[in-house]
Amino acid sequence: MEILVVAATEMEIASYLSVNSGTDVLITGVGAPACMYALTKRLQQKKYDFIIQSGIAGTFKNSFAPGETFIVKNDVFADLGIYERDSFFTLFDKGFTQKDDLPYTNGWLNNGIAEGFSLATVNAITVNTVTDKFEQTEIFIKKFNPDIETMEGAAFHFVCISEGVQFLQLRSISNFVGERIQTNWKMTESIHNLNQHLQRIVKELVTRNP
Prior knowledge:
Layout: E1 3-7, H1 14-19, E2 24-27, H2 32-45, E3 50-59, E4 69-75, E5 81-84, E6 87-90, E7 109-110, E8 121-126, H3 134-144, E9 148-150, H4 153-163, E10 166-176, H5 187-208
Parallel strand pairs: 1-2, 1-3, 3-10, 4-8, 8-9
Antiparallel strand pairs: 3-9, 4-7, 4-10, 5-6
């Protein structure tokens, strides 16, 4: 089975890289544009049966503990739209595109197989600018009611759905959204758990599809 593991930075999957012997790996760089370009370019060069994006994330939910790991079911470009009279409108709100136009399903970039694995699923948003501004966080919560926030997830979903490749976005919680004091982040726990789950899911995929 041809599997590709994707991450924004090498640091996030360092321990997986030290033991990996059966999958290709792509380090895209941070942010949606870098992810979209690198992944699209790779898929022009080689076909894969399955792609896993693995990384850390911030959470909006106080009930989520740092280090917990999830699979993203739905993602969206949360800051792709229009600010007007102190309100935010998506491209769907303004009629520039329809909520079910490929690769979207009801306005989300949905992964239909996300619930076929043992980890809990979450809804995510992807942003170009991470901020500690309370007002911005409130806009996102009101508009999307997300569980987590990343800088690449929606780009990953967009490319995989568009190209018809099965995929999973795997995220481990390192911090709460808005917390910019990085000494408070749980990076060690988050990355350890992320890599443990990544290794297990890769083994599970290989066992299912030898």
